Amino acid sequence: KTAIQKLIEFDVPKTAVLEIDKGILSDTDLEKMHEWSTTGDHANLQAWISNNLRPHGVFFSAPLDLDLAMLQAFPDAYAGIIPKGGGPRMAEEKAADAVLGTAGPGLGAYTGPFEVYKALLPAYRYHFLTNSKPATHLAALSRLKQKDLREKMPAVLAEVLKHIEASLRRD
């Protein structure tokens, strides 16, 4: 919702970002967008984001953020920076509460294609909630070969880089 409002604020036509099957999303429906439930409707949501927001440089990482996507893509690099005797010690459920909070669906949202991410939440909590995110990423990335980074990077990161490259060539 915030991304859409910002695009409109910066003069992107509403018709470009609010197009839905039945026409253009009303201002009233946009104001209530944060109340929508998208559980089980991932395909339609992803298609709408791809068609309406990505052309304007808006990207989302799923199921949580780029940190979790990087941890999933390069588990050995992140495991390799854990000092001897250190590392995650929290169970998935407790880590999920720390990472996701307790007010929302918690692990219940991690179904289907997102099921594999549940096991990463203890490592996510350890690396990104108890240590410096930038330092953690730099240390893990320093363990990777450029070829591995290029071939295994999260899809959303590859899409962002392609968008940046195209934007630089366009202007």
Overview of this structure, please?
- By secondary structure, this protein is an all-alpha fold.
- The protein has 2 domains: 2-56, no CATH class; 66-170, no CATH class.
- Helices cover 54% and strands 2% of the residues.
- It has helices at 2-9, 14-17, 27-31, 42-53, 66-73, 75-79, 92-100, 121-129, 133-141, 146-152, 155-170; strands spanning 19-20, 23-24.
- A two-stranded antiparallel sheet has the order 1-2.
- A hairpin with a 2-residue loop joins strand 1 (19-20) and strand 2.
- It is globular, with a radius of gyration of 18 Å.
Short account of what is shown:
The chain has helices at residues 2-9, 14-17, 27-31, 42-53, 66-73, 75-79, 92-100, 121-129, 133-141, 146-152, 155-170; strands at 19-20, 23-24.
Question: How many beta-strand segments?
Answer: 2
Taking all residues together, what is the mean pLDDT? 90
Percent of residues in beta strands? under 5%
Structural class: mainly alpha
Number of domains: 2
Helix content: 40-55%
- Principal-axes geometry comes out as globular
Distance between the termini: 28 Å
Q: Note the main sheet.
A: 2 strands, antiparallel
Number of separate helices: 11
Strand and helix map with partners:
Layout lengths: L1 H8 L4 H4 L1 E2 L2 E2 L2 H5 L10 H12 L12 H8 L1 H5 L12 H9 L20 H9 L3 H9 L4 H7 L2 H16 L1
Antiparallel strand pairs: 1-2
